[in-house]
Structure formats: structure tokens, C-alpha cells
Amino acid sequence: MRYVQLRAFHHVAISGGFSRAAAELFLTQPAISDQVRKLEAEYDVLLFSRERRQVTLTPDGEKLLAITRRLFDAESQALEFLAESRALRSGTLRIVADAAHHIVDILHAFRERYPGVTISIRAGNTESVVANLMSYDADIGVLGDPNPSREFEVMRLNATPITAFVGRDSPLAASPPLSLAELARLPLVGREGGSKTRRRLEESAAQVGVELTYVIEAEGREAVREIVASGLGVGFVSEAEFGLDPRLVTIPIRGEPVLMEETLICLSERREAKTIRAFLDLARAMSGDGRVQTPKPHARHS
């Protein structure tokens, strides 16, 4: 087995084809195909299914890709370490966040300190954030209440209660705080199943013997906001994520607060990567050594 063979396999797998891999590596397609063929022949294994000009990974190919992702990420970290003297003058930091506004202050400080680093931010729920980190498609995640795992480095940002909200023109707009049992009798608009906000709310409701059902389920926070703003039901969001929207009014939930904890998260094996370490160190310094910061309840929007 040679390095060039693994590199050829890895780029074909992540790019989805021999031609694209050849372009990325500045090689010819026959050269890439030859390296992959030799790797398969030497170990008597089929890594790609080649049918009707489509290239897909076999089960063995999927397993090898999981290994080569770690291999080439380690190589990238080694190069970053050797180039440490460049002091983060370049590079890319990829963030997937369930709510990017939790890190706006950190982003401002990071950009001022490391203006040469390009930052990309994508939206996702808890499940997609974790999936992107596990597949090495993101460097840092922002999500609520992660399940403890030795695979991840976790830094707590803050914790805020979940609140209900309705459209300003709704008959409920002037409602006093409602209990979960009272909310359960109303038409509810819920996030998709992978949403941690929804999961935390349902767990708290179950503890007091209440079952929440939804007349509408929508993927993404913005979709829920638009549906609720149109008058079709009651939505839920953490107070920190409510923002300023004149179309909407909050209804506090009466009883024990249902808290949403926001965290920064990265793979433990990648925490020493230069850009990741710099971002986490800055976030830790800004948030008081990573301790949970619980903001005071917001004034009700009306």
C-alpha cells in the first residue's frame, strides 16, 4: 500500500468521481484510476461500485474512507503545526450552528485578531451539526445540550429558558404566562424531529404528564417563525434566539423553566488544530473560562 494510492482513493471518494479527483490533484484520470485499481488488486477488495458511469462507495470503501478522513486530517494538522510561525495568517474555519447569533461576539473578536482566516457558517439542527463534525465537513459546531461523549470537546456558552410565541394579531397575544398543560391544548407549530429545542420541551412536558402534539411540523427555525407570524399556531424558541420581530409576541411558560444550553463543540481528536484551538481559546476567555453564563430573563416582547 502506498500513500499515493490512499490519496487517490480518498479524493475519488470525497469528490464523487475519478475526473473530479484528477482535477483536484492535478493528475490525469487514467493515473488516478490506475492507483485505485492497484490498491484494490493488492488487497483483493472492491472499494467503488462502477455502474452506468456512476461511482459509489462499497461498504468496504465506506470503512476505508472513515480511516482516510482521519489520516488526511492528521496530515493537515501536521502541516499546520509546522507552519505555526505563520500565526494564523491564512486558513479556513468551518462552523455549523443551530443558531449563529450565540457566537457573534466571538466571531467579531476572532476576525479582529485573525483577519486572514476565512470563516464559513452553515445552519443545522443538533443531528446535522454532529454529523458534519463526525464526517470532518465542519470544524466547530454550535448546538444546544449535547449528549456527553469522549469523542467531543464541549465548551458551554450560556443557558436560557424556552418560551412560546404567537403572531402579534393572535387572540393569545395578550395572554399571561401559560403552563405546558395549557399550551398542549393549543395548535402547536413544532420543529423537525432532530431539533434539540423540541426534544427538551417534550422531555419537560412528559415529566409533568403532558403530551405535546403539533398541527404543523416545519424544518428550521425560520420556517416556524413564518408559519406562526401568519397566525397558524404557537411556536417555541429559546429566549436568546427570539430576536426582534415586530410580527411576533412571546408567551412565557409558567412553571419550572425549560432551559436550553448552548455550547461550542468539536471532535476531541481535532481540538489542537490551529484554527480550532484559537477559536476555542478566544471563546473560553470571553465567556469566563467556559462556565455557563445564564442571562437575566428578557423583557417580554409586545
Automatic annotation (TrEMBL):
Protein name: LysR substrate-binding domain-containing protein
Taxonomic source organism: Ancylobacter koreensis
UniProt cross-references to CDD domains, sorted A to Z: PBP2_LTTR_substrate
Gene3D superfamilies: 3.40.190.290, Winged helix-like DNA-binding domain superfamily/Winged helix DNA-binding domain (1.10.10.10)
Classification via Pfam families: HTH_1, LysR_substrate
Domain HTH lysR-type: 1-58
Keywords: DNA-binding, Transcription, Transcription regulation
Family recorded in the similarity comment: Belongs to the LysR transcriptional regulatory family.
Hydrolase recorded as keyword: no
Coiled coil: none
KW DNA-binding (keyword) present: yes
Superkingdom, natural source: Bacteria
